[in-house]
């Protein structure tokens, strides 16, 4: 049998359905007596954050210096790296643990490996890895991880087929796998299937937990079924097995505000505050700050900001929430002041923070300020990413500066990163502009070649043009698309809430 699959001991499947698989294994904070106590393997790995850095080289060096690494140390490192979205590095450590150190891996380790491979190398490689797992190790943890991978990539047919197999194996005895599928149905707006699965849970005696109810709340909110949402909240309030914590109130508040029911939304936000405690305070305050901004309660936004600052260290995510909220409220001076504070105090550069400023300036037509921000962080040795240049290109397009838009979009495509997609409206306008230039065809061909080399299809771009090309309409549509995409920054906080609450 491949050394990769030698079983060490069974572990429980820890909340895989939304974000995490493993339990925390300590030990990597310690170091040998002859070394500097501050020089830990955790610190070395933590500092090597650039994607091109080799984790194997760091681990090998650690051993060459006569230090030890326990399996629990390595499992702790994998968890730490996953927590900070360093999936590529986490996969390197996971593979090094079994391939180089010859450690026996548990079903939990295998489940984590499936998740990491799907994130880093895609589903095809993940399935190839799964097919190499011996049948006797394909228990609930491994099948649960596979289901979560399919659901994360929104592969509905494969997820449903696997769910059917798990029914046959008798694995569907808890809420975990059900919640994974319920979340997928919600994301794909398959509300009928979601309701059918909820009925199956009731028929099989599977109790709805707070995650099940959270998905239901979101489903009601997304379909504007406020009455259904309120009935569910009432049932939850009298259910002794459920607690109405801040996650629930925030979810309800989000949908009330989206439906224009401001007072009801604010009531939910206010009810949430007394339930906030412990380690969740930062994420809770960030979420409430965003909701108060949506309700245009500027004083409450600043109150939440002060609560965040009173917690001690202010994280990049908090600055991101505050600056984007102030920009949305047209509090430009306040946003600029907070941004300067971030510049002076930041320990780790996060390009999303200046990107929020650049996006807002481009939407409002303040292109000189947007350009100045780009120049500023380039001068400080930081690289603009694809989103930076894409936003600038859209700003130029919306303000009729097409030559500059072309150059900025070229830089965006060259700075391409996994998961990034260009603003298709801006691209459509660029192609139309290039068609009209003196050197007919050449500039457009060069641009299309660049797109193709970077893996972007031009078909959807031409679809945007249609038969009735209207420059004025495209200007507005480009800005609208930018605004929709930028709301994902705020949406990240709600996704963090889900992940945090499931750990």
From TrEMBL:
Keywords: Mitochondrion, Repeat, Transit peptide. Pfam families: PPR, PPR_2. It comes from the Eukaryota. GO terms for cellular component: mitochondrion. It is found in: Mitochondrion. Transmembrane segments: none annotated. GO terms for molecular function: mRNA binding. InterPro entries: PPR_rpt, TPR-like_helical_dom_sf. PPR repeats lie at residues 139-173, 174-208, 350-384. Belongs to the PPR family. P subfamily. PANTHER family: OS10G0501000 PROTEIN, OS12G0527900 PROTEIN. This is Pentatricopeptide repeat-containing protein.
């Amino acid at each position: 049998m491949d050394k990769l699959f030698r079983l060490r001991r069974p572990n429980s499947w820890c909340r895989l359905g939304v974000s995490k698989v493993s339990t925390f294994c300590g030990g990597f904070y310690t170091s040998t007596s002859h070394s500097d106590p501050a020089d830990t393997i955790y610190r070395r790995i933590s500092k090597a954050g650039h994607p091109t850095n080799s984790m194997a080289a760091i681990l090998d060096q650690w051993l060459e210096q006569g230090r030890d690494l326990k399996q629990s140390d390595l499992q702790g490192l994998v968890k730490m790296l996953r927590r900070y979205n360093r999936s590529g590095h986490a996969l390197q450590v996971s593979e090094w643990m079994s391939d180089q150190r010859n450690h026996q891996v548990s079903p939990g380790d295998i489940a984590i490996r499936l998740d990491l491979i799907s994130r880093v190398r895609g589903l095809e490689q993940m399935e190839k890895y799964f097919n190499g797992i011996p049948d006797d190790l394909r228990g609930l943890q491994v099948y649960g991880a596979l289901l979560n991978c399919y659901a994360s990539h929104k592969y509905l047919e494969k997820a449903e087929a696997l769910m059917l197999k798990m029914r046959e194996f008798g694995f569907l005895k808890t809420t975990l796998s059900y919640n994974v599928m319920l979340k997928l149905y919600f994301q794909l707006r398959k509300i009928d299937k979601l309701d059918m699965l909820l009925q199956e849970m009731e028929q099989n005696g599977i109790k709805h937990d707070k995650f099940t109810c959270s998905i239901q709340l979101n489903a009601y909110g997304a379909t504007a079924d406020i009455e259904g949402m309120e009935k569910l909240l009432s049932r939850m309030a009298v259910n002794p097995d459920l607690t109405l914590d801040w996650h629930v109130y925030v979810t309800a508040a989000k949908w009330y505000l989206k439906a224009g029911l401001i007072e009801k939304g604010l009531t939910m936000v206010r009810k949430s505050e007394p339930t906030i405690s412990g380690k969740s305070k930062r994420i809770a305050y960030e979420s409430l700050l965003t909701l108060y901004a949506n309700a245009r309660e500027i004083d409450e936004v600043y109150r939440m900001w002060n609560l965040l600052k009173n917690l001690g260290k202010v994280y990049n995510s908090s600055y991101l929430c505050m600056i984007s909220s102030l920009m949305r409220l047209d509090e430009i001076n306040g946003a600029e002041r907070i941004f300067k504070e971030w510049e002076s105090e930041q320990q780790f550069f996060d390009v999303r923070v200046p990107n929020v400023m650049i996006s807002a300036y481009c939407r409002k037509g303040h292109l000189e300020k947007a350009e100045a921000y780009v120049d500023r962080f380039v001068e400080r040795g930081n690289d603009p990413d694809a989103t930076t240049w894409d936003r600038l290109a859209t700003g130029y397009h919306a303000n009729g500066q097409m030559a500059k838009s072309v150059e900025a979009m070229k830089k965006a495509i060259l700075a391409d990163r996994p998961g990034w997609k260009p603003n298709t409206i801006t691209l459509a306008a660029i192609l139309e502009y290039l068609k009209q230039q003196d050197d007919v065809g050449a500039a457009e061909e060069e641009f299309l070649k660049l797109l193709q080399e970077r893996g972007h299809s031009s078909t959807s771009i031409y679809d945007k043009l249609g038969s009735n090309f209207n420059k004025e309409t495209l200007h507005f549509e480009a800005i609208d698309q930018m605004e929709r995409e930028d709301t994902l920054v705020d949406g990240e906080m709600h996704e963090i809430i889900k992940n945090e609450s499931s750990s």
